[in-house]
Amino acid sequence: MSMETPAGLYKYPVTKLCMIGTTLVTLIASIANFKYIFIVKYDPFISEYHQYFRLLIFQLGCVNETDMALLVLLWYQFRNLERLMGSLKYISVISLILVYTTTCVAGLNGLVNRILPWKIWNSLTTGCLPVMLALFHFYKEYTPQVYEFEVLLTQPWSQKNHRKQYKWVLNDQFLVNALISILLLNQGVEGMICGFISWICGVFLDKGLLPGMDRWRLPLVEHFLLSKDTNNNQGFYENSGGETSEELLIRRGDREESPGTGDGALPLDDENANDEPARPLGVQFLETFRT
Amino acid sequence: MEIDGNTLLIIIIVLFLFFSTPGGDGVSSQYEFNQLETFKRQLSAEYESFERMNYNSGFRNITGFKLSLNDVIDDPQRNATYPIPSKDYEHWFQNQDYLILPEDVTSRIKNEVWSLDMDDLDENIFPPNITSSLLGRIQLVSNNKYPSIPMPIPRFYEGPTEFSDVTPPVGESYPEEWPVNSELHNVTFDTGQLTIHLTHVDKVASKLGSERKNFFNSQTDRWKFLNLRISLSDKSEHEKHLLHTNAIYDVRKGRILAMSESAKFHSRFAFPHYMNLQDGSDSDDKEMFESLKKAIEEYWKMSNFVKTLTMGDLQDWYDESVLKCEYMVFLQLSPWNQYTRDQIKMIDDELNWPLGRPANLSHLPPVTISKGILYSPDCGVELAFQDAKGERYELKIRSIRTHLLFGIGLFIAQIYLLLCQMHHTNTPSSVNKISVYCFSMINLVDGSLATIYFFAGNFLPELYLPLVTSAFACFILASVFETRYLISVYASQLNERNIGISTLLRGGHTNNEEGGTGTGTTVIPDESSISGSLYARFFFMLVTFTVLALSAMSWPRKLRMIFEYSVIIVLNSYWLPQIFRNAIKGTLPRRNRLRDQRANEAMGVRRQNKMPLLWKFVLGTTLIRTLPVVYVFTYSSNVFRHHRNVRFVVVLCLWLLFQIAMLYSQDILGSRWFLPRMSIPEGYSYHKAMPAQDLLEHGSTAKYTIDCAICMSEVPVRVEEVLETHNVDEQTYMVTPCDHIFHTHCLENWMSYKLQCPVCRSPLPPL
Questions:
Q1: Which residues cross the membrane (chain A) (predicted)?
Q2: In chain A, which residues have their Cβ closer than 8 Å to the Cβ of B469?
Q3: Number of A:B CB contacts under 8 A?
C-alpha cells in the first residue's frame, strides 16, 4: 500500500457523497428553517409528543455549523477507509453502522429514561457523530501509523541546567484524534455518552458480535453511485465476503505489490490523442480573462 | 492623487459634514430647543393631570379632549380652553356631555362592536399575540352627519419665520381654512379597501438612541400595547388614508381601542376612559380603569416618554395634525374558542421558536376582526367594517420562505438549462446565430430579481438567509453565466454592426464592391474589451429597470396595471428576437439539414448547421419564467396579494405558445419560410470557382493549385476559364470573401474558433 493517498477526492465516491450530503442537508435545513427536526430531547419530544421519527433521522443533519465542519473534515480524513475497503463495502459498513448506532443510542436512551426516575440523559447528539465514532474504531484498527514526531517544550526563563524538558510525542493520526475529541466536547455530556456507545458498536461490529459486516452489501449502490467508475476500475476492489478485515488487508497488500495495478486509477494523459479538441465554451470564457 | 493641504482640508470638511448632523434629540438651534422644551412642558403638565384623573372625573386640560361633543353643539364658536366655566370636571358619564363621540356612535360601539357576551371571561379565548396584516372592505357610514370638534394646534409647533427668532409663538391656531370637502380631511368614497398592520409593542427603550429595550408591562395577561397601521383607499387608489395609531388590546375580552396621536390630539391619556365603553357593573369598570391607567403609567415611566422626545417626534406630530384627521378605532376580535389556553400558548411558542411541537400550524385560523368602527372626532367621519382577516405574521413568513425555496429551485434549473445550451453552441459560428436581444431580456429580468431579492433581504431580517440565497443564485445566473454568454454572442456578431438587414440576409459581411471599406483592415476587438462595455450596460439597465419597477409599485392602480401588463408582455417576448435572428441567418429545413449532415459525415466534415437553441432550453426556460407569473395571476391568495386575472395569463400563454410555434416551424420548414422568396438575396458561398486572373495573384502553380495556409499542402482549385480543372469538386475547398483559399476541412476547423481569415484577419461570414 502506498504511503500517500492521492490528493482530492478522485475515485472516492462514497467519501464525496458523505461530505456533500453532510454539508447540503445542514445548509438546506438552515435555509428552509427546519433544522429543529434533528434535535432529539427525550422530554418533551419523545415522552410527551411521541415524535419517534426524530430518533430515526437525528444523525442525518447537524444543528450546529461547527459540528458540520468537523464532520466534513473527519469524512475527508476517513477516506483511507474507503480506499482500504472499497467503495461498496465502505458504504455498506456505513449503512450498517448507521442502523446499529441509531438503534443502540436511541434504544439505550429510551431505556435509561424509562427506568431511571431522574433525568440524566435527556438529549441525543445531532449530526452523524455516532457513525464517526464507530468508524473511528475502524480507522484506528486498520490504518497504520506512518510517522511520529516530537514537540519539545522547555521553560524559556529558567537556567540552563535546571531546565526541564517536556516531550510531546504526536503521530500522523493526531489530527484525527484532535478532531474527534473536539467533536465530542462540542456536544457536551451527550456527545460523550453517545460517542462511547457508538464506539462500542464499532468494536462489536468489527469483532463480529454484531452481524452483517461481511455479508451485507447495499443493493443498487453499484447502479447509482459507482456505475461511472466501473469501466476503468482498477482502484475499486470488491471483497467477495467471507474474509475478515485483517485478511482483506493482507490480500490488498499483495495485490498492491503486483505490477500493473499501481497507478491505473490515474487519468490517462490524452493530450496527444487529439491535438485540437473543440474547446468547450467555459474554456473560451476563461481565455478572455487571460489577456 | 497627491494629498496636499487643500485636499486634506476638503476631506476633513466632508467628514465633518457627515458626522456633525444633530445627534440625540435633533435640536440644531435655540429656536428648536425652546420648541422642544415647550413641547415637553406641555406633555408633562398633561401627564400630571392624567395621574390625578380617576374613574369618576373627566379630562381636564388634555389636548384634544377639552371640549365634549355637547360643548360644541351648544356653542359652535367655543374655543378649546381649560377650564371652561360651566363645565363639570368632577364627574364622568358615558354620554355626549362628556364624550367626544356622538350618542349613536357610542351606542353602536356598545351594542354592535363590543357586544360579545362578557359575563364569563373564561368562555371566550383570544390569542395573546396577534401580529398580522388584516385585509377587509370598509364602508363609509356618514361624513357630514356629526359636528366636528374643533381641535386647535398649538402655535409653538410652527417653524421660525426669520433667522433671528428665538422663542416660538404662543397661543393656538384653529385650522379653519380646511376646505370642507377636501380629500385630506374627509373620506369621499362609499366602499373601499382596508389594510390593518398589527404589531406588538412589548419592549421600549428607556434612553435616547439606546439599543437596549426593556419590558414595561406588568399585566401582560390583560393588556397588550399595539401599533396599528391602518390604510384606507378606494378601489382605484386615488384616495388613500394612512393612519398610525397606538392601540391597547384587552386580551381577556378581545377588544382593541386604537387612537391616532398628534399635536392636536393627545390620545394616550384617553385610553382608560374610552376602553370602558360598555354597560357593565360599576365596580368592574372602576377596576378596569385603574388597571389600564397603571399600564399606561408603566409605559410612560419605563420609556421616559418626555425625556426621549426628539425634534423628529415634534415635527411628526405637527405634520400628522395638519395633514390628517384624528381617528378613534374600536375593534372586536373573533375568539379562538376551538383552542384551550395551553394550546394557544404552544402555538405561540412554536411560531416564535419553532421546535416541531405538535401545534398543527397549518390549520391555524386567521386573525379576524369581526367588527370595527372608525370615528374621527375632528372631521366627523364615521366608517365601519366587518370581518377583516389575515394570517399570523410568522405563518406568512413561513409561506414566503417556501415560495422562495421553490424560486431557488427554478433558478438552479435555469442555470442547468443554460449550461446545456452553452454546451450546445460551443463555437463562434453557432453562437453567432443566437440573438443578443433575446438573452438581454432574460438577463434583465434575472438581474433585477437579484437586486430586488438583495434589497428585500435587508428589510426582512426573518427571511435574510433564503433571500440572500435566492439573490446569490439569481446573481450567479445573471451576471456570471448569462452575461458571459451574451459577451461571446456579442463578440461573434461584432463584424455585423453597422450593416443593413439586406446585407445580413446575404451572409453577414460587406462585399468589396458595395461596402468599399476594404478588407483586411477591420480589427475585431477581443472579448475582454467587449465585456467591460457590456457589463456597464448590463448594470445600467439593471439599476434603471429596478428603480422603475420599485417606483411603479406606488403608482395609482390603473397606471400601475398598464405598466405591469405591458412590461410583462414585453419581457415575455424573449423568443421574438431569436425568430428574427433565425430568419436573418437562414437555417435550412430539418430534412435538408439531416441530409446534409449525413453527406458531411461521409466526407468527414463537421458542419455548423444545427438550430442555435436547444429545444430543452427553449421549453424549460419558458416554463420556468411563466410559472411565477401564472401563480401570481391565477392563485388568488398568493403571497404578493396580487389581484387575480386569468384572462391575462391566457393571453400571455398564447403569446408564448405562438413564439414557440414560430421557432418550431422555423426548425421544421427552414427559418425563412415566411419570407417571400423574392426578398431573400443570395448568401455568400464559400464554394465557388475562381477566375484565372485572381488565382494568378495568389501565386498558383501551373496545375492550378494553391498552398493551403493552414495545412501547407496543395489545394486543387476549379478555375472558370480552364476546362481541365472542372473535375475538381467545389466542396473540397473554400474561398473567403478576401479571396484566400483553404481546404474545406482546414478552414471549417479554424472557423470553430474564430471568424477571422487566418491570413489577413478580415472578418469571415459564419457558415
A1: 20-40, 52-78, 90-108, 120-139, 174-205
A2: 31
A3: 59
d(CA B71, CA B89): 13
For residue A166, give how far its alpha carbon lies from the nearest alpha carbon of chain B (Å).
49
Average pLDDT, chain B: 84
The CATH superfamily assigned to A9-156+164-227 is Rhomboid-like (1.20.1540.10)
Alpha carbon of B608: minimum distance to chain A alpha carbons (Å): 13
Q: Which grid coordinates belong to A231?
A: 469501466
With H, G, I as helix, E, B as strand and everything else as coil, classify residue A248. helix
Would the CB atoms of A291 and B528 count as touching at under 8 Å? yes
The answer to whether the pTM exceeds 0.90 is: no
For chain B, which domains are there? 11-84+106-391 (no CATH), 397-497+528-679 (no CATH), 692-751 (3.30.40)
- Chain A contacts of B531, Cβ < 8 Å? 288
A275 in B contact zone (CB under 8 Å): no
Report CA dihedral (B428, B429, B432, B434) to the nearest 10 degrees.
-100
**What's the grid cell of residue B314?**
415634534
A285 contacts B484? CB cut-off 8 A: yes
Q: In 3-state terms, what secondary structure has residue B499?
A: coil
pLDDT at A256 over 50: no
Average pLDDT over residues B80-108: 83
- B568-620 pLDDT, tens digit each: 999 999 999 999 888 887 777 888 888 877 777 776 555 556 788 899 999 99
List the single range of B20-24, B118-122, B722-726 with lowest mean pLDDT: B118-122
Interface test with A, best of B528, B748, B750 (most A CBs within 10 A): B528
Q: What is the DSSP string of A43-79?
A: IIIITTT--THHHHHTTT--SSHHHHHHHHHHHHHTH
Among B112, B69, B129, B113, smallest CA distance to B93 is for B69
Question: How many angstroms separate the CA atoms of B698 and B738, rounded?
Answer: 11
Mean pLDDT over B160-172 rounds to 86
- What is the ipTM for the molecules in this complex? 0.73
User: In chain A, what are the domain boundaries?
Assistant: 9-156+164-227
Could you give the angle at which helices A129-142 and A245-257 cross, rounded to 10 degrees?
Answer: 60
Question: Do the chains contact at A39 and B355, CB–CB below 8 Å?
Answer: yes
Instruction: List chain B residues with CB under 8 Å of A51.
Output: 356, 358
Of the candidates B93, B190, B187, B64, the one whose C-alpha atom is nearest the C-alpha of residue B139 is B190
Which site among B357, B419, B434 would you substitute to test the A interface, given the most A Cβ atoms closer than 10 Å to its Cβ? B357
What pLDDT score was predicted for residue B5? 85
Residues of B in contact with A33 (CB under 8 A): 354, 398, 401, 465
